[in-house]
Q: What sequence folds into this?
């Protein structure tokens, strides 16, 4: 889509795009190209010698069981966060769409966790589940379950999944509610006249019509779980115990900044970029055409 | 509503209340923990009603902070966070408005190249280019500065697209009328385009302010000086490695203070917030 009427070209448009392009070039394109270049080098941690090794960093990564493990951890983590937050949000949205009284109040009370930073969400849940002082850990102990996510990898994973999903429910809720309210009431009334009960109406009419929203949220939630949850991991488990919660984004950080393996970290960055590009392409291709029955 | 089923309505309300309870529970516990003494916390269970030490804990946090986090007071952290969030939000909006204006209202060589260059930034979140970006900022001498906290994050493909979409819906007749009256491009931008864009700017501002306030990884990387700590990353430094030595009441007071500004923004500007959220994702 283009404008028919435009202003005469002069140096002005260049000046107008200059700030945006300058920031993009200095802080996005240059570092990204550096990451690409670095990923082909092996450098010792003190920067004394560098060697150009083509794809050896990548070969090393994919031969490294820790890296493959981190892939699986990320897949598991993202799937769990997405399923949990989408499921809860859909349930709440369907209920909020039903009620007449207090709908606005419910909405207000359900959307605010969006404003909480992931790292802080992590701290909140860390405090609740702290093995020695946490309230939930205390009650679990009373019913006979000894919670200790500092030692138990499975519990650590559960904790970061809960914290990550908790923060994302509000966002999904808002989009599901908007999607539900856009479904024509006449369809639902027609089904009701044909004798379909609420559950049947949901599965045969509402849920299929909601599929574009669901698909959109699926992609957004995956991106969130892949990239925005660094703060949660860093605040709650630091990737531990062992490597139980070391997702890819956290591994880039810990290998690069803590382990000072520059080439390996850059190679991981490049792989992550490829994943973002893939997800963005999926998002743009399908959001325009919309999944539809 | 199609039919009136009493038990189903009750169930809906019950589920919603339960949902709100689960969402609010961690915050409530945090609030309680910020009003009691260390003694009450290390001897679980934590009481479920707020204690009498609200003022002590919050004033200690605001003025002195926690020793482990090199003792920078939370008031300073709040200030740093505010500067960073405002700089990111305003910076993104300003440069995106300008570039969207240029791309929509001018035809110039390399226009599409500019457009696609901006588009690419969408695919390069900080998380995937940590080390090289850090190096650029270090070479520019921007470590431990407000500029270093904000400027690398202000390029925005999303905001540029949003403004581009909006400008495209503005009728061409307005430009024609403005030109007939002898207005140049800057005059048109300032007197016609900006007033029309006001609601979109406000909606976007709400989203971007929260985005800026909640930044974690970036400040963690580029600030080593305690006086530049932002509050969201500062909390993490307050939690001692062996968690039992952590001064929890003060840490929890800090957590409340860190959550408050963005939550207030969301709840008081709910309409703008929802508008901004829906638009930035389309």
A:
């Amino acid at each position: 889509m283009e404008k028919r009427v435009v202003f005469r070209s002069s140096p002005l448009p260049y000046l107008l795009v200059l700030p945006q392009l300058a920031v993009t070039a200095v802080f996005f394109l240059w570092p990204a190209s550096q990451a690409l270049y670095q990923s082909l080098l092996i450098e010792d941690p003190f920067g004394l010698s560098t060697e150009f090794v083509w794809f050896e960093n990548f070969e090393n990564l994919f031969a490294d069981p820790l890296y493959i493990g981190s892939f699986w951890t990320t897949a598991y983590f993202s799937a769990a966060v997405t399923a949990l937050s989408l499921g809860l949000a859909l349930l709440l949205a369907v209920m909020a769409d039903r009620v007449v009284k207090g709908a606005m109040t419910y909405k207000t009370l359900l959307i605010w966790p969006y404003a909480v930073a992931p790292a802080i969400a992590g701290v909140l849940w860390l405090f609740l589940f702290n093995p020695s002082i946490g309230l939930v850990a205390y009650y679990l102990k009373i019913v006979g379950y000894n919670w200790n996510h500092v030692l138990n990898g499975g519990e650590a994973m559960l904790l970061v999944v809960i914290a990550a999903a908790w923060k994302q429910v509000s966002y999904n809720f808002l989009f599901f509610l908007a999607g539900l309210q856009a479904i024509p009431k006449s369809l639902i009334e027609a089904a009701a006249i044909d004798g379909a009960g609420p559950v049947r109406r949901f599965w045969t009419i509402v849920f299929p019509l909601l599929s574009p929203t669901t698909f959109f949220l699926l992609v957004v939630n995956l991106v969130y779980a892949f990239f925005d949850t660094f703060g949660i991991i860093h605040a709650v488990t630091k990737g531990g115990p062992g490597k139980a919660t070391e997702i890819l984004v956290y591994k880039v950080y810990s290998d690069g900044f803590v382990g000072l393996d520059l080439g390996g970290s850059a190679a991981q960055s490049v792989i992550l970029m490829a994943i973002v590009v893939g997800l963005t392409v999926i998002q743009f291709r399908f959001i325009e055409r919309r999944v539809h029955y | 509503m199609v039919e009136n089923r009493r038990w189903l309505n009750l169930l809906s309300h019950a589920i919603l209340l339960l949902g709100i309870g689960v969402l609010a529970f961690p915050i409530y516990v945090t609030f309680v923990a910020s009003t009691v003494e260390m003694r009450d916390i290390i001897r679980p269970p934590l009481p479920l009603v707020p204690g009498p030490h609200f003022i002590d804990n919050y004033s200690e946090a605001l003025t002195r902070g926690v020793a482990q986090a090199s003792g920078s007071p939370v008031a300073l952290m709040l200030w740093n966070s505010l500067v960073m969030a405002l700089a990111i939000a305003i910076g993104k909006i300003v440069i995106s408005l300008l570039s969207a204006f240029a791309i929509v209202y001018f035809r110039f060589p390399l226009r599409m190249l500019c457009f696609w260059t901006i588009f690419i930034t969408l695919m390069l979140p900080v998380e995937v280019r940590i080390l090289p970006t850090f190096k650029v900022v270090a070479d520019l001498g921007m470590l431990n500065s407000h500029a270093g906290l904000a400027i690398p994050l202000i390029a925005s493909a999303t905001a540029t697209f949003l403004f581009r979409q909006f400008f495209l819906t503005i009728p061409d007749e307005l430009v024609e009328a403005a030109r007939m009256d002898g207005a140049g491009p800057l005059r048109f931008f300032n007197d016609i385009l900006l007033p029309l864009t006001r609601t979109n700017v406000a909606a976007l501002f709400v989203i971007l302010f929260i985005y800026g306030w909640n930044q974690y990884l970036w400040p963690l990387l580029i600030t080593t000086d305690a006086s530049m700590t932002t509050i969201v990353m500062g909390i993490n430094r307050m939690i001692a490695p062996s968690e039992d030595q952590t001064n929890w009441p003060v840490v929890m007071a800090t957590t409340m203070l860190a959550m408050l500004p963005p939550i207030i923004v969301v709840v008081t500007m709910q309409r703008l917030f929802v508008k901004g959220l829906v638009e930035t994702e389309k």
